[in-house]
Design a protein that fits this description.
α7 packs parallel to α10. The protein has one domain. The protein has 358 residues and is an all-alpha fold. It is globular.
Length: 358
């Protein structure tokens, strides 16, 4: 909005020419998101407490979590607000990629909000059924994949890390592939959200990493120099990623141990879906397995645990997702969180290294 209002005036006021630069708008989208989080955070937490939107804790979970019963949940609404508003203010609103990502954020946010609301009303950890959530997630992801597939000039090739010449064209198969990436990322972040600040840390790191990927993919000269797939218009997603970083940092202020508010599915499903969508648009889908390695590890731990128990009647971990396994081994919660953040940073650096190691 500010871009459309102020940039056209640069012919009269040369200082407004700065609005042309994605880097400038990304910085201020990040700051705007951070300010919104700090300003709205205390009010929203108080409102959630007033409405008795308290978290219900699984009775089968670690005993240390029982004391968290009643902590306000659905704090992800704060994150989404702090992403959407700065994006609308600072991004080029004629850009399809921005709107598709916002569609996923809002759509998945509504799914998560409904799930959280049902949990609060039922006073237990059962909200929407897995089938209901999956249906709506797949439907939204299908719409995004189909629009991208039909969009003139959008490439359906697959970028394989470390192999610059290996770029298979998926054709129409790209649609279900995009669905897998978006829905998989959404649910992986959701599974990671089990400790104070555990999910939002890697989300901030992943968003910062994809901020760079988006900017480079949208810059023709840099994309050509790095021999990555150039995506005209993808650079605008750097602004949305910046807003995700700022919103995440602002939310972490209240979500750090011991948490004043929990993200809830309204946040985790939307953030994971957004990262998956940006990975699809920037043609860095496979690299997401590296950058989002913590999310992948959490999801695989659940799959392995369920599979092993159903087939052999034995558990691989003391409890899944894997962060609970370390809790039951006696690791303090803050230690698990910080160590997972450190691993996320290392994985993000490895992911960025794929830009040159080809």
């Amino acid at each position: 909005m500010l871009y459309h209002l102020l940039y056209p005036l640069h012919t009269k006021f040369s200082v407004l020419y700065v609005f042309k630069y994605i880097t400038f708008r990304t910085i201020y989208a990040t700051i705007t998101a951070l300010v919104i989080s700090f300003l709205l955070g205390p009010w929203m937490i108080g409102k959630l407490q007033q409405l008795q939107m308290g978290q219900s804790i699984r009775k089968l979970g670690p005993e240390s979590h029982f004391k968290k019963e009643g902590t306000p949940t659905m704090g992800g609404a704060l994150i989404l607000t702090a992403i959407v508003i700065p994006t609308l203010l600072w991004a080029d609103l004629t850009n399809l990629y921005v709107w598709l990502t916002l569609l996923v954020i809002v759509g998945y946010g509504i799914i998560g909000f409904t799930d959280d609301l049902l949990k609060v009303r039922k006073k237990n950890s059962d909200g929407l059924s897995a089938r209901q959530k999956m249906f709506w997630q797949l439907l939204i992801a299908f719409g995004v994949g189909l629009i991208l597939y039909s969009y003139p000039g959008f490439q359906t090739t697959l970028t394989v890390p470390f192999f610059k010449a290996l770029r298979p064209d998926l054709g129409w198969v790209y649609v279900p592939f995009a669905m897998l990436v978006i829905v998989g990322a959404s649910n992986a972040v959701n599974l990671t959200d089990g400790l104070d600040g555990l999910a939002i840390g890697p989300v901030i790191i992943a968003a910062g990493t994809y901020l760079l990927f988006a900017y480079l993919a949208g810059h023709a000269n840099l994309a050509n120099y790095l021999q990555i797939t150039g995506i005209p218009g993808a650079g605008e997603l750097a602004i949305l990623c910046g807003a995700m970083v700022g919103a995440g940092l602002g939310f972490l202020w209240f979500n750090s141990y011991p948490a004043q508010v929990f993200m809830g599915d309204v946040g985790s499903l939307a953030l994971g879906g957004a990262i998956g969508t940006i990975a699809v648009i920037t043609k860095q889908e496979i690299v997401l397995v590296i950058v989002g390695g913590i999310f992948v590890m959490e999801a695989l731990s659940v799959i392995a645990q369920v599979t092993s128990f159903r087939l052999y009647g034995k558990r691989i971990f003391r409890m899944a997702p894997i962060h609970h396994h370390f809790e039951l081994k006696g690791w303090p919660e803050p230690k698990i969180i910080v160590r997972f953040w450190i691993i996320s940073i290392i994985l993000a650096l490895i992911g960025l290294s794929t830009l040159k190691l080809r």
